[in-house]
Every structure is written in C-alpha cells, then in structure tokens.
Amino acid sequence: MTGLHKAEDLRRLRPRLQAMVLVVLGAFALLAGRMCQLQVLEGVHYSRRAERNFIDEVVVEAPRGRIFDAKGRPLATNRPAYTLYITPRPRLTEERHQPDGPAVGSRVPVTDGEIRELTEFIDFVDDNDREKFIAKITSRREDPVNGKYATAVRSNLTWEEYARIQARSDQLGYWVEIRESSRRYYPRGTLTAFVTGYVGEITPAGLERSSGSYRPGDRVGKTGIERQWENYLRGRLGKRSRVVDVHRRPVSEPPSEAIGALPPDEDPIPGQDIYLTLDLDLQRTAAQAFDGIHAGAVVAIEPDTGRILAMLSVPSIDPNRWQQPIKREEYAEWSKSPFKPFIDRTIQEHFFPGSTYKVVSALAALDDPTFDPEREIECNGFVKYGGRRFKCTHKHGPVNLEQAIVQSCNVYFYTLAMEEVLTLDQMEIFARRLGLGERTGLGLNSEVKGRIPTEAFEAREGTYQRGVRLNSAIGQGNVTATVLQLAVVYGALANGGRVMTPYLVDHIETSDHKLVFRNQPQQRRDLEPLPGGDRGRIHRGLVGVVNDELGTAYSERPDNVEVAGKTGTAQVAALDRRRVADDELEIPGWDVGKEHAWFAAYAPATNPRIAVVALVEHGGVGADAAAPIVMKVIQAYLDSQETIGSARKPRASGVPPPLPGQRQGPSNDEPQEGAAP
Amino acid sequence: MRSKRPLLGRPRSLLGRFNRAIDWVVVVLTAIIVALAMINLNSAGNGDWSGKFMGQARWIGLGTIAAIVVGSLRYTLLYRLAYPAYLFGLGLLALVPVIGIMRNEARRWLGIGDYQFQPSELMKVLVILALARYLHDLPSGGKRTLLQRAIPFAIVGLPVAFIIVQPDLSTSIICILMGLSLLSVTELSGKSLAALVSTGLAAFVLGWGFFMRDYQRTRIDVWLNPEAYADDEGYQTIQAMISVGNGGFFGRGVQNGTQNKLGFLPYGETDFPFAVFSEEWGFLGTSMVLTIFLCLILWSLNRASQARERFAALLCVGIAALFFWHIIINIGMVLQLLPVTGVTLPFFSLGGSNALTMMIGVGILVSVSRARQFQ
User: Fold this and answer.
1) What is the DSSP string of A90-145?
2) For A105, which residue in chain B has the nearest alpha carbon?
3) A100–B342 CB contact, under 8 Å
4) What is the arithmetic mean of pLDDT over A281-305?
5) Res. B337: pLDDT tops 60
6) Which tens digits make up the pLDDT trace of A436-488?
7) Residue boundaries of the structural domains of chain A
8) What secondary structure letter does DSSP report for A379?
9) Whole-angstrom Cα distance, residue B229 to residue B234?
C-alpha cells in the first residue's frame, strides 16, 4: 500500500473532468429544457388539468315550469324536497405496488357493507324497491370514469329519511350527500292526471338518447303535457363550483389560487310556465258527472278554435303517486285492472263510434247527386242482406234522412249501403275530410289514429264481406275513432265545416311573465271544408235528436239551452267480450257484454260555443249513460260563460258561419282573464 | 497564489484563519438548498412547521453536526478511516436482514432508539471513501492485474448485493453509477467506459425482454405512455407532470399549490418534493434550484481539478457524482424523462438517513477544500 501523499501529476485527469463538466451541463440543460417545456410552454394546459382535478361542479336544479289551467289555477307545481346523492367511487387510494414503484392510483368503489348501511335509513316500500336501489348504486360504482361524480339515486326523500340520514352523515361518510331540490306536486290529482301527465326518473335508454343533456337520476316528463312540453318546462340547470380534494370532499379552506380558478356560478333558469286552455271548473263538472262510472272519457272543445276545454279519462292514477316509489303489487294491480287506468281513453284508445258516425255516412250520402234526402225508407226493424239479418233498435216506419238521424235508424243507412249510395270508399272520403283515421295533431300521450276502412283495407285484412259496408255505415264493422276525434268532428259540424286542430296549450310564459309562445287556432288546411247545404240538413237532424219528441236523447234535453247532438250505442267486439269474460271477477256496474255508450253534442245549437263528446264504456244505451254527462258539461260551461259575460255576440241563425280569417269578435281571449297569477 | 499572499496579508486572527479554512461556496450553496428544501418540506407536509417537518429538522441538525465534524477532520484522517468505515458500514448492512425493520415490504431500516436509520444511505459515502482510497493506492499508469481490475467492482458490488436484496433498487443503481463515475476518472478509458455502458444497455434490453417481471415491464410502459394509464399505474407520473406544469413561470406561491395541498400528488414529501416545489415556485424557482445544484456539482468538480492527490480528486468527484445522480434521476423521474424509481432528491426528500448522508458528503467536500488550503 502506498501512502496518501505521492507525487503525481494530476493534470492528466483534467480532460476527463472537463468531459464530466460537459456531461453535467448537458444533463442539467436537458432538465431545464424539459421544465421550460412543461412549465412555460405547456403550463396553461397543465393548469387546466389541475383545475379539472379540484373543481367540482355541483348542478343546481332549475325549478320546473308550472302548469296552469285557463284561469291561472295551478295543475302542476313544485314543492321543496330533498334528493339523495351518492358518489359511487369516492376514495382515491395511492398505493405503491412495489417498494420503489410509482403510486398507483385507483378509485375505490363503496363497499356492499356501506351500501347496506345506507339502506337502513331509507324507507323502502317493498323489497323490490330496495333491490332496485341497491342495483342502481351497484351499477353506478362499476363505472370508473363517472364514478367519482355524485349522482342522484333517490329523489323526494321523506322528512324522516332526511332527518335520519343527516343525523348519521358522519357515520355514513361523505359519499352520501343530501341536496335540496324540488318535487312535482299535482294539486288536482286524478282530475287532470292524463292532461298534466307526470314526471319520473329518466330511463337508461332515454339518458342515452339525450346525449348528455340529462344526468342519471334526473326527472323528466313521462306523459301528458309534462312530456310533450318537457323542453319548455325543464328550464336550464345552474352550476355552482366548489373546491374538492383528491377524495372529492369539499375543502373548507382551499388555497387562494384554487378559489380564483373557480368558474363563476351560474344561476339556474326556471322552466317556463304553461297555461292550458283547460277549464278546471268544467273538468271538475265532468269528473262529477262520471261519478259512479267505472270507465269512460269526455272531451269538450270550443268549436271555432279547437281549444280543449275539458278532457277527462276515467279511471286514472293520481300523478302524485309517481313521485314516490310504487309497490310492485300495487303496480301489478293497476296493470291487471279491467278498467286500464294507464290508458287515456280520450286519445290512446279507439272505439267503435256507433251511431255517432252516422253524420259521416249522411254527409257521404248527400254528396251523391242521385241521393234524395227527402225520400222515405220504410224501417221494419231489420233488413236482410247476404243471408244475414241486420237489426235496428225497433220499427221506425218510414223515415227520411233527417228522421233517420233523429231516431237513429239503422235500416235507413243499411238500405243506402245496400243501394250502394254508401260505399266504403265514399264514406272514407268524408271520414277523412273530418279528420278521422288519423291523429288530430294534439300531440299528447301517443295518440292513436283510429281506423277508417276502405275496400282495399278490408281485403287486406281478410274481413271483407258485403255486410261490412252496412256495419260501417252505422259506425261498427272496422270503423274506430277516439273520443277526441269525434269531438273534432262535431266541432267541425258546429263551426261551419272547418276541421280544427285541437290544442291544450294556450300560451307559455317565462317565470317572469314574458310571453314565449301563444297558440293560434289552426284549421286543418289539408282537409276540404264541408259543403254548407249538406251540413244544414244534418244540423237539423242533430237538433232533432235532442229536441224532437222522437229524438233518441229527447229525455235528456236541458230546458234553458238548445243542444244538437247524437247518441251512439256501440256494440262491443265479440273478441273483446270473450277475453274479458274469462276474467272471473264480477264487478257491479261493469257488464262487459254491454255496449259502449256515446253522446256527441254541441250547444247552443244556433251559435255553438262548445262541442262535447262523452263515452261510457259498457254504459249501455248512449242516451241514458253518456248524454247526461254531456248535458251537465254543456250547462256548466254555458252558465259560467254567462256569469263572466261573454263578449261574443250570438250569431243570428241563417247567417253563415264566418270564414277563417274573418273571425267576428274575440274568440280565444275570454277565458284568460285572471290567467296570470 | 503564494506570491499574492504577502500583499493581502496572512490571516493572523483565529476568525480570519477559520474564515479561510472554510469553503464558503459549499457552505452557502448548501445552506440555501437546505433552507428551500425545508420550506418545501413544510409545504408538502401539513404546513404548520411541525410533525414530519420537525423530525426532518432534527436530522438536518444532526447532519450539520456530522458535516462540521467531518469537515474539521483532516482529510488524511479520512484516508486512514476509509477502509474501517467501509467495513463498519458493511457490518451495519449485514445486520439489516437480521434485525432490520420492515416497512412497505422492504427491510431497510435499523432502529436506534426512536430513530430509524438506513445503513444503505450511509454506505453511499463509505463506498466513495473506500473506492477513492483503493484507486488512489493503485500505481498510476501501467497495466492492471486482473485482481486490480476486480477489486473496485467488489468494493461497489459487495454493498450493492446487500442493498438489492432489501430490496432497494434505487440505492443500488446510485451506488453503481457512483462507482462508474469514480472509475471513469482514473481507470476506465473512454473506450472501455463506452463498452461497459453499451453492455449494460444491452443487458437491460435483454432483461426487459426476457427476465423482467411483469410489474417492472409495466412500469416502463407507463413511463413511455403515462396517459394510457392515467387512472392507475400512470397516476403518479401524470399528477407529477400536472403539478410541475401548474406552476407555470412564476409558480402558485408557497403553500398554494392545489395539486399538493388538495392531495392529488402522492408522495410529495419523499419522492416527488420537486413536483411540489415546481408547483409553488414555478419555472423561476425550479431553474434557481437547478442552478444552485449545478453550482455545487461544478464547484465540486472544480475542487477535484485543483486537488493535489488522486484521493482528494476522487473524493470530490465522488461527492459530485452522489449529488448529480440523485438530482438527475429524481428530477428526471418527476419530469417523466425517466421511469419512476425511489431515488430521492438531496435535502428535499423526507428521510433522515439521506439528509445525514448528504451532509456528510458536504462535510467531506469542506474537509478536502480545507486540506487544499493548508498545503
């Protein structure tokens, strides 16, 4: 071994040390360059990413627009409520998988135990409800991308649930959060169930279709106006931002830089309020008239405009029920009910119109130049055709067209059909000119079209017999229509032959009463107006139905107003009868073998201001079951018009109804008094 | 220099002599770094100058004492102590598998009272001492025998073998790199260095292909493309880069970095303090720290070039290498230039043994500088 001090020229080491200096300088330059890149050149990009880390945007729900009737009475409003939010993957763990390895981040989903703990505090209506709740959380915690965001899992918590969860919030942990929101409230319940519709949680399919404009757990309109006008009602969500830490807990004292980076809060824009044409008083009158009747529907419209004044389908489910979870048995009960409470009988179900369809047949016959409406046909109570007997109610004796309508003689129309004055195709032309066989354009509750057969249709269906023509002439066979369609038909008969598009929404306002939209009466321009002379003859017949002693609805005539109308007694399809007959339950007042009762009318006959159509399912004879309902509605409406003091001048008889665009007097602004709250 | 002395006057007072004896450049640079590091450590921790901060402050204090002791030793004494100290260190390392403390699936620590100590950290300095002495003792020039070639590798390899089984890959890598740095000063020619490095690279590539464990391979994949693993394996890398970038030019301000304060950056105290520092001090601060570190290393190399003996030169190069490799590997890892390893940043990283070791390194530098002064 040599000692420390030895003579040596260390200068030969210099080049190597210089090389080292160069290596060091090079390495540091590399580091500096990279820092310059990250901090100076790409600094803004990384700042944004840092912000994305710590900014949590809390959505502030917009109050949903309210729905009012024509006089400004609320049909759908909001009440404060609490919504349960959970963050399905709240925690972030950073663990090294190897001693010197990088920290591996992973969002840890909530455990089954934690979910179970939460369920203890919620009042489930049944096990199914609980399972669905757990399944919802379990499915959301599988999503690694969105799992770190809070989502609504249960809305409209009861006060007890709220108190229980709030009290245990420390124990549950910060992944459970209750936020204030609002719940929908329908003050009139079943009365306006099908009109307002209801809101419910968005379905996964709907969520996908909305392409990001809705969040899971959002409540959307499911039926009725709520659904049709969803985009107006929902408003725009607001935003509040807050600083959260890596576990997405709100930070009470965040660094000042973080506060500065928060985007400004956005206030929610409340949804727009919808004012309907519906008159709640009239609706209530209609509902009272249906007292004791299991199933049926009534629609009242203003003939000149197509405004729907009342629209009721019985039975219905209180829309408030959908704001809470529903027991499975209860739901099953509803869906098994023979009264079909889910179906809006005004537009979602089509029925044989029965004798109310005779006005269409009469119009079709009058179009034939060889047809003489004054010719009398002898009614013997039946006709024989193609080996079958086609029955009438009783022997009417000789009847002309007007009397055939007044007394509702089937034989008269059978004969016309046999004589080929009435063919399927000829009737179809007039049915379609009155808007039958296609949607009225109301756009509510997936309206059905009804059915107007042609010969081609019958051939296609394989139901063509010569007798079909006879049945079709009296609104049986394959002819079907909805209650609303018939209301439009009778409205057109009342207003001078113009088929109007019925509408429910009068106008829409923003929450600060700025007008957004006002509906205008719309005539169906694609449909040819009815010829005036023909209409007059039918009108006389319809007046006779109620006011002639022989008229089928004479017994129901009101004393202070002249009503024109038509009864209908539609036989129930044999198939329908058999199917229901299998049901062993016997329900009093519900004889499935009985006919559906119709009554369609307008009043006052000389200057019609309202057209009403009522249907009572299995109600029997139209005059007995349906006509009283219609009369009550008509009377209530006309009475209320008189007390308000309608500005409308009655049109003198003989004066032709005004043409579109030459409207006399105000037609659509009188029910809006007091509309603005 | 000697000719100028009469002009300036020979320092007569004790203070004057003390003043001249101390390498103020090293002391001042170290002091600045330690001050910044402590401020940063406080930010990375809970921010109230307590807890882990106080623990580290105690270690820094201990390290300062160690540096003063080492610095005041004549470096001839360092020469004499080199081998015994090395053997002492090896003995401690050998104790680790027996009575060591297990933490995070690694047995690296020895407990002394309340303190826990990593012998592998101290070993870094002891390897420098021993290797410097051995290389110094070799005759300059002339052919080396096989044994003479093998012994330097043994000096490095023996402790590395102990360290790698702890397991502590990063300290092993540092030891090997420091050994290579020392060898390249006096022993290895450019050619053989190149051969060694290329052999190492080839072994690495082969190892990657055939022998590397899956997790290690993933780590390389993550390093090459962290965005693809942003939520799991790449999380650390991505968050570190966000922290650095979020600092921008001027920085977010001390205790104001969101990445660090809100917990998005894992291991901000131990392995990623530079990310914390970058976020709070910005490019201005990082370039300042980088410059100070650079000055310290260059100063150390400068001292090496002024040395009279090979031992002194090798010590200076060794300390420079110690700092250099720590800084490059740690900051390179933060800036995603290198894969994530557990290599610490001198003084910035929380860890007593490391701070103590670095302080001893500084002490050695001071001691060598003083020797130069006295001769």
Assistant:
1) -EEEEEESSTTSPEEEEEEPPPHHHHHHHHTTS--SSHHHHHHHHHHHHHHTT-TT
2) B232
3) yes
4) 89
5) yes
6) 888 888 888 788 888 888 877 777 877 667 778 888 888 888 888 999 999 99
7) 54-90+108-271, 280-657+667-672
8) E
9) 5
Alpha carbon of A84: minimum distance to chain B alpha carbons (Å): 26
Tell me the CATH architecture of domain A54-90+108-271. Alpha-Beta Complex (3.90)
* Res. A577: pLDDT tops 80: no
Q: What is the CA radius of gyration of chain B?
A: 21
Residue reference for tokens 């830089």 = A257
Those residues whose C-beta lies under 8 Å from the C-beta of residue A504, and which sit 6 or more positions away, are A195, A225, A276, A277, A278, A308, A311, A442, A444
Q: Which residue has the higher pLDDT, B319 or A641?
A: B319
Interface touch B310/A97, C-beta < 8 Å: no
SS (H, E, C) A531-596: CHHHHHHHHHHHHHHHHCCCCCCHHHCCCCCCCEEEEEEECCCHHHHHHHHCCCCCECCECCCCCE
Do residues B86 and B146 touch, judged by C-beta distance below 8 A? no
Residue B139 has pLDDT above 90, yes or no: no
Q: What is the DSSP string of B163-181?
A: HHTTT-HHHHHHHHHHHHH
Whether B49 has a pLDDT exceeding 80, the answer reads yes
- Asked if A54-90+108-271 and A280-657+667-672 have one fold, the answer is no
CA distances from A525 to A178, A486, A495, A521, A660 (A): 53, 18, 15, 12, 10
Pick among B262, B276, B326, B368 to test the A interface (most A CBs inside 10 A): B262
Q: Between the CA of residue B132 and those of A629, B128, B220, B309, what are the distances in Å?
A: 113, 6, 34, 11
Residue A376, judged by CB atoms within 10 A of its CB (0-12, 13-18, 19+), counts as middle
N residues, chain A: 677
ipTM: 0.93
Identify which of A366-370, A529-533, B70-74 has the greatest average pLDDT. Answer: B70-74
Distance between A313 CA and the closest CA of chain B, angstroms: 55
Kindly report, residue by residue over A250-265, the tens digit of the pLDDT: 888 888 888 888 888 8
Please check whether the domain covering A280-657+667-672 is classified as CATH 3.40.710.10.
Answer: yes
Of B215, B256, B331, the CB nearest to A101: B215
Give me the DSSP letters along A499-516.
PEEPB-EEEEE-TT--EE
Q: Does the pLDDT value for residue A672 go beyond 60?
A: no
Query: Residue A398: which of A377, A412, A384, A373 has the closest Cα?
Result: A377
